Amino acid sequence: MRAALAAPHTAALDAARAAGGNALDLALAAATTLVVAYPHQCALGGDLIALVRRPGEPVRAVISAGAAPVGVDVDAVRAQHPRMPGAGPYPVTVPGIAAGWAALAELGATRPLSEHLRAAATLAEEGLPVAKDVARAIDNRADAIAGDPGLRSVFGALREGDILRQPALAATLRTVAEDGVAAIYGGAIGARLATFLAAAGSAMTLDDLASHEVEIAEPLVADALGATWHVAPPPSQGATLLAMLDEAPLTLRRARAANAARDRHLGDPWGGDVDLDALLHPGAPEGAAAALPPTGDTIAIAAVDEDGRAVTLIQSLFQHFGSGMLEPETGVILHNRGGGFTLQEGHPGVLAPGHRPPHTLCPSMILAGDAIVAAGCQGGRAQPQILAQVAPDLVDPASDLAAAVARPRWIVGADLGQAGETVIAEPGAPAPEAETGESGVAFERLPAPTGMVGHVQVARLGPDGLSAGSDPRADGGVLLT
């Protein structure tokens, strides 16, 4: 079957090429490989949110976002921390990625998930060169790696080009291939993770892991820029992207307003009402209502095939190497998605037993005339801004996708490493510098392109056939089968 795939590491393309099959097969081959090849951004200890379109059927959202432990003592966390911590045991929620893979496989993959897991295990055992983005992450979180025995044993001495081998992770992947994802959600691997986390001070138990649910949901849908856009519903920030699409090109005022609405209103609908209208129709920007954690790290994969099947998935650790904890016996890096909670009482995203945190993962699916477009990006809380800037090209069936994702971009936020709310812009980006003085937002023009403005991956089936674009800020490319 002819298909197109975009992914942020060439090893994912190699795995997809070897696996073959339809868009779901290619995406799953790439996704399982990336927990080995891009372990700073995604791991078996992370989450997954995806959108899937099957021929002749509506788009569906697959939300495999893990919840906080049922036994979490919120008052104890507040007593120790002025805001939700971004590292250590407290922000570790149930990892949803493996259950998400299994749910995606059931939506029409032709290759068994076990096949992809065994291939990923072989790669983890034999090793592969450390990519430039992995090397940057090792440098950026050198202190966290040095402070965690598990991370230090795997990544502590590595530099770009060195061979990364992960024998413990290889064994874990083989166990999941043999026993299914139940090995994590109630089985031996889950038991080991729960024991490790309990020793570190987490309330996570094997029952929490066994209780994990994948939500198959209707997406949020809106017409914008002459196309129909689909995004995942809360706890994903997909509504924030739809809010930003009301103005093209994206303005600073609109980006700030949508960001502020998200920071005030996004939460878990399983835990209480979420004000969708406030998210979709933000008022004037007034700054963020809650102090939220730093921008995180994720990977995006986009795939389409000639039958009109499409998938866009994002899987994540949230921050470089997540919580900063690697369980040594399993080789599993644990995410810090729980860092998306706030400790502010009454906020819809407040930390609570069994609730899912507000989620940055924001895949999108676009139906533009006769074209089907799957798109997603790395970029933490800035994902809607990043996608909104490439949106005009995504809905143009004649656009060059490679050029679209490479074009200079800007983002605005209060979690970018600067002293306050700041616009950062790549060289050549048409950034709203003139607006910043009026709004009191700082402006910084960067000296070179940077991954801080995200890694966009996009695949399209249009009147002229299949095409794809992979962000040159990452280490990947595209595959056309």
In short:
By secondary structure, this protein is of the alpha+beta class. The chain has 17 helices and 20 strands. The strands form five sheets. Strands 6-3-2-10-9-1-20 form a seven-stranded antiparallel β-sheet, with helices on one face. The protein has a six-stranded antiparallel β-sheet with strand order 7-8-13-14-18-19. Strands 15-16-17 form a three-stranded mixed β-sheet, with helices on one face.
Q: What does the model show?
A:
The chain is an alpha+beta fold and 481 residues long. Helices cover 33% and strands 20% of the residues. It is built from 17 helices and 20 strands. It has helices at 10-19, 23-37, 74-80, 97-105, 113-126, 132-140, 142-147, 149-155, 167-179, 188-200, 206-210, 238-244, 252-265, 276-280, 383-394, 401-406, 433-439; strands at 3-7, 47-53, 60-64, 128-129, 163-164, 215-217, 220-224, 227-231, 298-305, 310-316, 325-327, 332-334, 364-368, 371-378, 410-413, 422-425, 442-445, 455-462, 465-470, 477-480. The chain is globular and about 50 Å long. The chain starts with a strand and ends with a strand.
Strand content: 15-25%
Q: Specify the number of helices.
A: 17
Largest sheet data: 7 strands, antiparallel
**C-alpha Rg, in Å?**
20 Å
Provide the structure class.
alpha+beta
Instruction: Give the neighbour order of strands across the main sheet.
Output: 6-3-2-10-9-1-20
**How many individual domains?**
2
Shape: globular
What level of helicity do the residues show? 25-40%
Query: What is the terminal-to-terminal distance?
Result: 7 Å
